Structure formats: C-alpha cells, structure tokens
C-alpha cells in the first residue's frame, strides 16, 4: 500500500468534518498478515532537519551595555544582521542552527559577571527557543588580540554561566571549548603554548570546568587535535615502565583527579576546525606539535577521522573555513567532509570557499545528483535518513501486539549526535497514539565509509514487537516519528527528523507517514470501499491504458484515485484511465484507490508495471548538453549550451531552475528573467528528440544574480620577480547608482604582503587586503570604470596566486 494521507482524501472530495469523523468510527476486518511497503527515494531535495547543516553567526547577547559587539565600536565590525533576534536570514536559508560568540571582553579581570549580562544571555536563548532553532555557542575574551585572563577567573565565569547553559541544554546543539586565546580558539594566550606541559594543566582545568558545569547531553568541540589528545588519549606505559605514548599532563598533586576525565566526559568531546581546507594542514590545525611529542600530519588527521564514542556513534565535528582555499577542491572537500563525518559548518565565512562551493557544479555520482557543491553539502552535512521499506501488518487489535521492521539508508556524511526516541504513531482525526520503539537508537545509523562518492549505508531495523495501548477501534494513519528528546520540544515539528522520501512527510505534525489505513479492531458498518484490482491494457510509446474491477462499498463507490509511482495523477468516476504524455522506453508503476461519498478511501490496489514502447525501435535518448552561464544581471541569467546529438535529431530542450522546468526551447540558449537580486540559482538542461526520448540532465550551473549597485574588478599583475610584484585594479560600477566613495577588499591565498598603494589607502590584516578611495577618485558613476588609477606593490614567498573574490562597499563583485 503506497502511503497517502487520509486527511488529503477528505480534502479531495470536499467531505465535511462530521462525515470524516463518522468515517473514522468503524472499519472492516483486514488480514493481519505482514506486508512490505517500498518508499520512493528523494535524492535531490534540500530540506531542513534539526541539529545539522550550515549556520549563520548571530549575537545572543544584544544588550549594548554588556556587549560592545552590538555597537559601532565592535572589534569584529558591526553588523545589524547579527543583532536580529528573529534570525530571519537563517530561517529564510532553511538553516536549523545558528552560531554565537558570547563575548566576555569587559570582564577579563573581573571575577563576577554582572546580572545584566546574565539576563541578556538568558534572553538570547529565549529568542532561539521562540524561533524553533538550536545554537552553537563559544565564549571568548578577545577578538583578535592577546588575552591575559587568569585561569581562576575563567573557571569562575564558567561556573556562573553553567546554570543558564543547563537551563537551555535542549536548544544548545553543542559548545565550542572557547575561553582561551584569540576568538576563543586556543591559540595566542597565556595557556596556549603546546610545548609547555604546565600550561596543559590549565587547559585541562578549563575543559574540566566546562564539562562539570554543563549537562552531559551537551557535546563540546575542541579546536585542535593536540588538545583533543591531551584530554582523551592517556599516557601508556610498556612492561618495562617506559612511557610509549604521552597523553594527559602529569597533574599528580596539582589537581585532585590527576587530569583524568571519565568515559562519559570523553564521549562528549568532538572537534571544530576553523581553517577547514585552507591548506594541507588547515593553517596550523594539523601541523603543530607539543610537549607530548612529534606527530606527523597524517597521524593527527587519523585521530579526528577515527573519533567515535564508547558506544560506537559519531562525535560532533564542525567549524568554518578561513580566508584561504589552498586545499579546497571538488574532490578534497567531499572527501574531508566524509572522513570527518561533518555535521555543521559556517555559511558566512569565509567567502573565498563558500563562493567556490556555490559556483562550482559537480556531476552526478552514485545516488548524488548533478548539483552545485554547496547544494551537495546542504544535503549531506550530518545525517540524511531515507526509508527504503517497512514491514508491518494492515490490521491489529487494541492492547494486542504489533510488529514492525524496516530498512533505512543514511545518505549523508555523518549521523545523529544527540540521542532521540523513535515512535510508531497511530493517528486519525479523533485519536493519536505514540508507541515507542524502545530498542532503537538512531545515533547508530551511521554513514557509508564512501559517502564522498555517492554511496549510502543501509541499516536494518530488526523486527520490533510492541504492545498497542487500549486504542479505539478504527482506521489509523501509521507514521514513524523521531522527535527531540526534550519534552519541551517534542510537540514542535521543526525539531522532528524528516526522511528523504517523497510523499511521506507531514510538516504540520513532524511525522513520516508509512501507511494511510491501518485497521485497529473490527468494523460492521460505515466502512471504506474494498480495494480494486488493476489490469494493464494497451501500452504505446507514450501512453499506458489501465482498467480495474469496480470496488464495493456499503453506500456506493463515488470514484477512484489513480497513482503513478506513489503520486496521484488522476481522479476518475469510471473504471479505466489512460495515462498519456509518457517517455518512450520508460518503466511506470500504477495503483488505484477507491473512495465513497463519505470520503472513505479503500486500501491501495495491486501494483502494475508497464514499460512504454520504442517507436521505430528508437529508445536511444540524445546525449546530454553541456551548459554554461553567460551574462548575469540583477534580475536575469543568460544560459547557453552545446547542442546535444541524437541518431534521428534533437527536437528541443527542457530548461530547469532549481529542479523545476521553466522553459521548452528549440535553440541552444535561453535567458531567465524576473529573478531576485543577490540570489543564487541553479540550472540544468535536458535534450529530447522527436520520439520523446529525453537525455540525462546536463551539468548543473550555479549562478548568483548581482546586487543592485553591483561591481566588477579587473585584477592585473603588471610585473613580478622572485620576492615581489606590482599590480593594479580597475573598478567598474555595474549598478544603477553612482558611488561617492568606495572600499575594495580581497583575500590573498598565499603569503603576500602589501607594501605600497597608489590611488588608495591600503591596509592588510592577515590575508585580507582593504583599499579605500581617496578624495579625488572616490566618485564612480553608474556604468563607469575607474581604470589605471589604483595600483600597488607587494612582497611574496611561495606561490603568488591572484585573488578570485572581490567586494566593493560590502557587495560581492561579479
């Protein structure tokens, strides 16, 4: 029986609520034999799921009296978006996580945090709760300078915020260890020298305080593999008493527990890489060493690849990229996501990497469709569960037993980090019964070791036998429900897990619908129709004829719903239907359901399968075209493609945007119009011939429309020698409004250092270069170009790659 919603059936026929309730009061006896239902996969759709995916950065503490970062004096640069207490951008992007720094700059020498700060922090968590999101949290004392904070103050502050973190544990996805160093990233601080074993003791004190002042349900991500080793890998001693592997520091006499964490505490520790893919060692993430000894980069990577809890599930892994993309390639990015089982990553930082993901198309591979790299990460970060099939009876008795088994695939890079229950839900318009499958832990539904190549891992759910409650007799919808573990959040569908199937998700309840009609108990009157029996008729190259025996009903059958591949395609009153407009040489599967005047719907008929014919023996589709993007404006995207080939001739092309067909053209170009500015769109094209054969999709092209007031930069390398170079930039205002001043920014990917500028004031912070206009060259009219006036000199070592991403006045240039 293919899953269909009873409530949809009511809507189709316009049945009143009173009749719907009458329908659900009495039902016929059905066989209690087990049957297996197979579900349709959704390999391509991006949809939100809790505790995974991309995140944006927001300030939770929005009181300017206790957080300078929400004022114009912010050391990080003020952004009004980060103060948005409704998190509208994150929600519009389909994100379920946000990231927040909690800034303690004002109290790096003060033992007691003010109540005003604690109140604002509590309100920030209340805002997260109201938006039905979860958050990643990191505490820090400075932005990009050297912090001097005594360990006793750090521990005291952790103890003071502990009750607030505990009260909001249900909406905290995880903590990043934080507190130490620039940005709370465990470098450049009084306790951040990896070669000094005594400083490892202070690091242990900080992580111990964080672990023991927060609930065990909150994971904590560690910045560096070496710090992870200090906490998780104890020293080992061989039979001769020699230390063979140094781990936790020697705290004997210094701390009561000798720097030893419990297994439960070690299970909470994960990893956040804040320079993901920047170079071969992620800019210091893997290439540093310490008092514990020397370990090469592959060894330190293996520590992170092999992270599992003591009960065999994944640990939290996330972070962000930084302004370098030396190791960010199509293959390496997917491989690292897979090896590390990435769960979440920053959507905002750094543009040099995120822009590359958004603009780079990747071909179909395994179960992964052709799409942009960014879309692939949207789908595959964390978990992506897909229901393959489920076996259960169509009838059971109140207080009786009910058996259930299934096969579920995890199509993503990682898995669930937080525990959550699994329920079978029986519901109709009158009653709902939640029956827990107590023996299941979805955290154990792990990913394939080859998920980077489009492979998935199939998990077998063995037969679960449960005892049903004393349910009212009737027909029920059967669903699988994976709500949040917290009773505060269980009733909210935003926190329930959606499976990657078509036709199963009920967004109003957070249920994955398995079947529309499970009979509980017996019925003698007002029963739904019997199931029809379908037979195939004439099959052509573009049509399939169906007929069925009329179903029977106590008051009379009114009509029939016809389904193709689980989706309704027709509603007819007779006992036959011809499905036309089909592709030649293609297999189609059909079922039929009967309904009566009261809106009662029968079980699904038998399934029949037909393959359309090949006209003149031609079922060979055209070759796929190759798609490229041309001119992009604020509201249009020009597309063109190489002509596909076909043995009898290509007739035309279907153009798709975001998976939906938007055009059918005979030529090899198309301009999409009426688009939104500063918005990313993805396109692909399919060719078809006169016989109706359709090619596989072309490559997918991702394009971002320009912002109103757009820009274009020409970066010119004028001369170069072994240690330096001279360059220039031409700046074009592609918008409709004149500029009176301009600020140009870019990031170098190598070791380049700006030494001189002409036509602008220049500065550099790390790889980030900023050029500000002078009084005489700040005005650029709409459509005009400032050419030959701005130049610079710089030194470099190693490679001298040109930057690829530029911003003018905060707008991404095309």
Can you characterise this structure?
- With 814 residues, this protein is of the alpha+beta class.
- It is 15% helix and 33% strand.
- It has twelve helices and 45 strands.
- It has an eight-stranded parallel sheet with strand order 10-9-6-5-4-3-2-11. Strands 15, 17, 18, 20, 21 and 22 form a six-stranded mixed sheet that branches.
- Helix 5 links the parallel strand 4 and strand 5.
- Helix 5 (151-167) packs parallel to helix 6.
- It is globular.
- It starts with 5 loop residues before the first helix and ends with a strand.
Number of helices: 12
Judged by helices, strands and strand pairing, the structural class is alpha+beta
Strand elements, count: 45
Biggest sheet strand line-up: 10-9-6-5-4-3-2-11
- What kind of sheet is the major sheet? 8 strands, parallel
> What is the CA-CA span between the terminal residues?
51 Å
Helix content: 10-25%
The coarse overall form would be globular
Radius of gyration over all CA atoms, rounded: 30 Å
**Average residue-wise pLDDT:** 88
Q: What fraction of the residues are assigned to beta strands by DSSP?
A: 25-35%
Uncertain regions: pLDDT < 50 for 5+ in a row?
A: 1-32
């Amino acid at each position: 029986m293919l899953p269909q919603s009873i409530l949809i059936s009511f809507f189709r026929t316009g049945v009143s609520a009173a009749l719907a309730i009458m329908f659900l009061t009495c039902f016929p006896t059905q066989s209690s034999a087990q049957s297996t239902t197979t579900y349709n996969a959704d390999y391509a759709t991006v949809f939100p799921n809790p505790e995974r995916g991309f995140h944006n950065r927001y300030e939770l503490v929005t009181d300017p009296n206790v957080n300078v970062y929400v004022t114009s004096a912010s050391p990080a640069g003020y952004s009004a978006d980060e103060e948005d207490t409704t998190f509208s951008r994150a929600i519009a992007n389909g994100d379920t996580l946000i990231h927040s720094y909690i800034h303690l700059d004002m109290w790096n020498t003060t033992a007691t945090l003010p109540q005003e700060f604690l109140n604002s922090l509590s309100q920030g968590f209340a805002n997260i709760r109201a938006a039905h999101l979860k958050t990643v949290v990191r505490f820090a004392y400075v932005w990009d300078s050297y912090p001097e904070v005594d360990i006793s103050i750090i521990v005291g502050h952790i103890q003071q915020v502990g009750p607030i973190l505990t009260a909001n544990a249900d909406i905290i996805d995880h903590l990043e260890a934080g507190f130490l160093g620039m940005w709370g990233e465990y470098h450049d601080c009084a306790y951040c020298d990896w070669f000094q074993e005594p400083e490892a003791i202070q690091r242990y004190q900080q992580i111990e305080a964080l672990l023991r002042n927060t609930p065990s349900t909150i994971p904590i991500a560690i910045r560096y593999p070496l710090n992870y080793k200090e906490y998780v890998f104890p020293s080992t001693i061989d039979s001769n008493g020699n230390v063979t592997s140094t781990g936790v520091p020697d705290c004997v006499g210094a701390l009561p527990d000798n720097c030893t964490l419990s297994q439960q505490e070690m299970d909470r520790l994960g990893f956040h890489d804040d320079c993901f893919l920047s170079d071969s060692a992620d800019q210091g993430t893997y290439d540093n060493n310490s008092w514990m000894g020397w370990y090469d980069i592959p060894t330190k990577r293996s520590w992170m690849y092999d992270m599992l809890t003591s009960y065999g599930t994944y640990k939290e892994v996330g972070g962000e990229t930084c302004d370098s993309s030396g190791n960010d390639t199509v293959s390496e990015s997917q491989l690292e996501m897979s090896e590390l089982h990435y769960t979440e990553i920053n959507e905002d930082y750094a543009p040099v990497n995120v822009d590359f993901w958004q603009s780079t198309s990747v071909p179909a591979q395994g179960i992964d469709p052709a799409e942009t790299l960014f879309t692939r990460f949207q789908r595959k970060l964390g978990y992506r569960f897909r229901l393959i099939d489920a076996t259960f009876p169509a009838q059971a008795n109140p207080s009786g037993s009910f058996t259930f088994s299934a096969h579920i695939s995890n199509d993503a890079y990682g898995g669930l980090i937080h525990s959550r229950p699994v329920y079978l839900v029986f519901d109709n318009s009158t009653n709902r019964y939640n029956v827990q499958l107590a023996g299941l832990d979805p955290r154990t539904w792990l990913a394939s070791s080859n998920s980077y190549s489009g492979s998935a891992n199939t998990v077998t759910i063995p037969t679960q036998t449960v005892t049903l409650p004393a349910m009212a007799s009737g027909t029920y919808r059967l669903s699988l429900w994976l709500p949040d573990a917290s009773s505060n959040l269980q009733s909210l569908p935003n926190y329930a897990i959606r499976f990657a199937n078509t036709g199963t998700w009920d967004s109003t309840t957070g249920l994955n619908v398995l079947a529309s009609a499970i009979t509980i108990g017996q019925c003698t009157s007002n029963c739904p129709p019997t199931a029809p029996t379908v037979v195939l008729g004439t099959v052509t190259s573009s049509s399939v004829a169906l007929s069925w025996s009329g179903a029977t009903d106590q008051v009379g059958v009114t009509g029939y719903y016809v389904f193709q591949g689980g989706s309704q395609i027709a509603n007819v009153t007779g006992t036959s239907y011809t499905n036309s407009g089909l592709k030649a040489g293609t297999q189609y599967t059909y079922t039929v359901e009967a309904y009566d005047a009261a809106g009662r719907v029968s079980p699904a008929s038998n399934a029949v399968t037909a393959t359309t014919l090949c006209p003149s023996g031609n079922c060979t589709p055209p070759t796929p075209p190759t798609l490229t993007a041309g001119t992009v404006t604020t509201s249009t995207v020009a597309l063109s493609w190489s002509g596909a080939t076909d043995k009898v001739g290509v007739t035309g092309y279907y153009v798709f945007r975001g998976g939906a067909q938007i055009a059918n053209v005979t030529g090899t170009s198309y301009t999409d119009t009426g688009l939104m500015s500063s918005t990313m769109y993805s396109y692909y094209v399919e060719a078809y011939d006169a016989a109706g054969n359709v090619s596989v999709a072309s490559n997918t092209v991702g394009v971002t429309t320009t912002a109103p007031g757009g820009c274009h930069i020409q970066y010119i390398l004028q001369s170069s020698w072994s240690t330096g170079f001279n360059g220039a930039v031409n700046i074009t205002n592609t918008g409709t409004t004149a500029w009176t001043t301009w600020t140009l920014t870019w990031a170098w990917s190598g070791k380049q250092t700006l030494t001189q500028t002409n036509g602008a004031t220049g500065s550099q912070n790390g790889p980030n270069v900023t050029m500000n206009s002078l009084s005489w060259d700040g005005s650029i009219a709409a459509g005009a170009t400032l050419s030959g006036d701005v130049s610079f000199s710089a030194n470099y070592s190693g490679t001298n790659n040109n930057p690829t991403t530029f911003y003018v006045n905060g707008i991404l240039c095309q």
